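Quick one: structure tokens for this chain, please?
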Amino acid sequence: MIEQTIPDAGFGDDDDDFDALAPDADDRFPDDRYLDRELSWLAFNQRVLELAEDPATPLLERANFLAIFASNLDEFFMVRVAGLKRRILTGLAVPTNVGRAPLDVLADISAEAHRLQLRHAAAWKHLVQPSLAEAGIEVVNWDELTGAEQESLTEYFQNQVFPVLMPLAVDPAHPFPYISGLSLNLAIRVRNARTGRQDFARLKVPQMMPRLVEVPGDGTTMRFISLEELIANHLGDLFPGMEVIDHHLFRLTRNEDMVIEEDESESLIQALEAELMRRRFGPPIRLEITDDMDDVTLDVLLKELDITDQEVYRLPGALDLRSLFSLSRIERPDLHYPPHLPRTALAFQPVEQNGRADIFAAIRRGDVLVHHPYESFATSVQAFLEQAARDPHVLAIKQTLYRTSGDSPIVQALIDAAESGKQVLALVEVKARFDEAANIVWARKLEKAGVHVVYGLVGLKTHSKLCLVIREEEGTLRHYSHVGTGNYNPKTSRLYEDFGLFTTDDQVGKDLTRLFNELSGYAIEKKFKRLLVAPLHLRKGLIRLIEKERRNALAGKPARIRIKVNSMVDEQIIDALYRASMAGVPVEVWVRGICSLRPGVPGLSDNITVRSILGRYLEHSRLFMFANDGDPQVYIGSADMMHRNLDRRVEALVRVIAPEHLTELATLFDLAMSDATSSWHLDADGVWTRHSVDSDGQPLIDVQDATMAAIARRRRSRAVR
């Protein structure tokens, strides 16, 4: 059994004497020691945009990054900006770690978002769209089409588009219509040819139809026209007998920040379904318009939508560039990243050619660490659950599910296991943002199949990635455990970078058994041995580890801290890292998105380095590595350093102990932090600077490409033996 050096690192009663561990360092830090989290998030989306602007990025991938930027920004407004506005309007305390008035923060967010949206539009109009045209993929306007092409598209419009359009007049008999969030709309002004009266109409661009319509051609060049452009050039068909004076595009973003009041006497599902209905009618928070919209039309929208000038985003060219996702799926290998086929982890490769690997036998031989998407999710996590479902010796399966899909082989494996008589528990987090409705549907599907479905604890999201299989072997029960950093989702596993640890370690199995009991029942577990679990003890456990490195450094012992997360926001963690830095501990932070920590501030964070890496895969894993005077304490898991993760979610980190796994993680971190590696560097002022080429203009090392190559070599070397 592996005993941790951290006592009481669990989930349960708060019975630790944490004050006894308070550091003796000076806590009188400067008031401006944190970067604003919202502006830091916008800086992250700017890094996404920089990949789209980079001519070294494959062309269709550049289009994809433009679409990702647009999608990201939509969610930022729907959730983060909406949440800030809601709290301001209702008089609630606004969480801000920069000591500034919320309205000032909101004004800064608006200014930066305006700047980025203009840069985003320019990247499409002046960089990516012309480059695509040179490569034989054109997005054209109506007047660029030949007569024959226009005739063909008119026929398409009449047969496929016209029947589903619903023009809505606005006059004393027809009130201004409800405008759904993220819908693309045409604001149209028409004149009655007989009376001369001018009226206003709204036309919604159908969301279920392709936004980019392919123009019939000879096949040498792919040409597309936007659906809204096609509709705009046939408005006369929609308003016969009327003169179309003018038309303009607009798009509305609504508040979709959900607030679920959980009552133990009320069904969580019922409360969630009610909130989903309310979310559709959230107040407007952003209005995007084309830069040619006249004042008359804009005044109508401002009045009817009750929106301020600050919330209006006037943009050149096309609105809603999420439409570029469809372009990025074009089959042009020369314009994409080279294809990558995930490898089966060495431990899970079948002994016999064309045979099926025995996943349980492989895990019994020793802990297995898998790295997705470089190593296959299908032949590791999915195969693990599928083997468990059909194995007659498996008695029970317990699993958390945060984001997956109803047709997922993971869900099907749980259904198969339940239908074969096994005890199956699925803890489904139905509050996973924007997946709520889908999660409710497949949670009920699991229940109908006999799976015991639970929804966690009141007031907490269950974000941990855990699976426990109980198997009878020679009259005793053995625990097979999986703790991961990513969702049990086969689709995103091909796009998200994540780690997962498989183990038969009895202590991990007992820890997971206790944790599942607390999540599904009423047990209150105080201590875990190889896990760190939020919300009560994960932050404390990490601060203890950071504080130990600080004291080791002061004592002249080896000390080092390395953390890889999606977001670094929590003030207590950041202050602990500042104290460690002031004691001389080298601190390396590898963050994908938000970072409120200021590195390189003299006397405060001289020893802290922050890097960010973005690329073809979304960096999603979380690693926590502490030198511990030569006895490394290394954890992987689901938690980011944010208040919601540490205070309002069930999160779990598992300690990694196998020497070869510690070496693998350390080598990856070495590569990420190297000056020879392509990455963004954060300075003390919150500015991210990209380092992608060396002094000779040659490309720096790409971490993801290097990892692919390293895993491929690992497989080949095994084959040679």
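The chain has 19 helices and 27 strands.
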